[in-house]
Specification:
It is an enzyme of class 5 (isomerase). Belongs to the pseudouridine synthase RsuA family. This is Pseudouridine synthase. This protein has 247 residues and is an alpha+beta fold. Helix content is 25%, strand content 29%. It has three domains: 53 residues, RNA-binding S4 domain (Structural Genomics Hypothetical 15.5 Kd Protein In mrcA-pckA Intergenic Region, Chain A, Roll); 95 residues, 2-Layer Sandwich (Alpha-Beta Plaits), CATH 3.30.70; 81 residues, Alpha-L RNA-binding motif (Alpha-Beta Plaits, 2-Layer Sandwich). A hairpin with a 2-residue loop joins strand 15 and strand 16. The protein is elongated, with a radius of gyration of 20 Å.
Length: 247
């Protein structure tokens, strides 16, 4: 038996908090009866409806995709562009991306049909370390990279401290390769951070998400997370949240 709001969140209908609102608003039914109490628990055999639509019972699935450049981090696109779910034609479950990578950014992206899991990883308090490698125009000065490390002010607020390492430079082409580790998820954050210190990002790749890497995958390929990996990444998010709460 599980709490009703948890079952709704896992189905990807809404976050657990939003699911609680749906219940209190009388928009959820269990076995044909409206439920407005948050303490209700349901079993796999119970019929749950949200806004008169039956909740489809799907087994939770978790995938790691090496997203190529030129792909939208969405389940559909009104312009007809390729989306990340196009790489899973044989998957019957209604999977969706956990967060997003920009159209021109490649790298590691998680997909699932478990709404609760996705919301846990995307919650601002639980943000996990993400490692990016950027090819940028010019050769950044050490003092400017330190600005990124300390946090830099963007139009939507100051970024949290980051870890930055200059990996290589090409003086002839006037380009550099820089590794940056962040734990936030602002829109186009890494690109905007480098633009703020005067360096346009030419290429960007997310190489690691927590302890998960792209090892063994080529662009466009995916694999299912093992049960152990899924439990580890969930525990990591909860641990990060706990440590920040106590700090």
């Amino acid at each position: 038996m599980e709490r009703l709001q948890k079952v709704i969140a896992r189905a990807g209908i809404a976050s657990r908090r939003k699911a609680e609102d749906l219940i209190k608003e009388g928009r959820v039914k269990v076995n044909g009866k409206v439920v407005t109490e948050l303490g209700v628990k349901v079993s796999p055999s119970d019929k749950v409806e949200v806004n008169e639509i039956p909740l489809e019972k799907e087994v939770p699935v978790y995938f790691l995709l090496y997203k190529p450049r030129g792909v939208i981090s969405s389940v559909s696109d009104e312009k007809g562009r390729k989306v990340v779910t196009d790489f899973f034609p044989a998957i019957k479950e209604r999977i969706f991306p956990v967060g997003r990578l920009d159209y021109d950014t490649s790298g590691l992206l998680l997909l699932t049909n478990d709404g609760e899991f996705a919301n846990l990883l995307m919650h601002p308090k639980n943000e996990i370390e993400k490692v990016y490698v950027a090819k940028v125009k010019g050769i950044p000065l050490r003092e400017n990279l330190k600005k990124l490390e300390k946090g830099i002010r963007l139009e939507d607020g100051k970024t949290a401290p980051a870890k930055v390492k200059l990996l290589s430079t090409d003086k002839k082409k006037q380009t550099s390769i820089v590794e940056i580790i962040i734990h936030e998820g602002k829109n186009r954050q890494v690109r905007r951070m480098f633009e703020a210190i005067g360096h346009e990002v030419l290429k960007l790749k997310r190489e690691r998400y927590g302890f998960l890497t792209l090892t063994g995958l080529k662009a466009g390929e995916a694999r299912e997370l093992t049960t152990h990996e899924m439990k580890q990444i969930r525990a990591l998010a909860l641990d990060v949240s706990k440590r920040r709460k106590n700090s």
